[in-house]
């Protein structure tokens, strides 16, 4: 099983590609509506990815400022626990 390692730059590229598809003036009717629905889905997923990235960044900043504290919920742990 291969792992995909996407970056925020990949997300940016996908969003601009979608913008280009939406800007296609030959797209009309049902095809345009389908593309609009696709764009809405992509925007929703993109926002979730961005929010997750912001949370990860905040966690790293907090960790850097305060160090590791006891009783931190597992969901907020940084890293895989192998280097601690």
Please tell me about this protein's structure.
This protein is mainly alpha-helical and 84 residues long. The protein has one domain (8-76). The protein contains two helices and no strands. The chain has helices at residues 8-22, 29-66.
- As a whole number of angstroms, the C-alpha radius of gyration is 19 Å
Order of helices and strands: HH
Shape summary = elongated
Number of strands: 0
Q: How many independent structural domains?
A: 1
Q: What share of residues are in beta strands?
A: under 5%
Largest sheet: number of strands, sense, barrel closure? none
- The total count of helices amounts to 2
Structural class: mainly alpha
Report, as a whole number of angstroms, the end-to-end distance.
28 Å
Helix content: 55-70%
Outline the low-pLDDT stretches. Answer: none
Q: Average pLDDT value? A: 83
Topology, pairings included?
Elements: H1 8-22, H2 29-66
How would you summarize this macromolecular structure in one to three sentences?
By secondary structure, this protein is mostly helical. It has two helices and no strands.
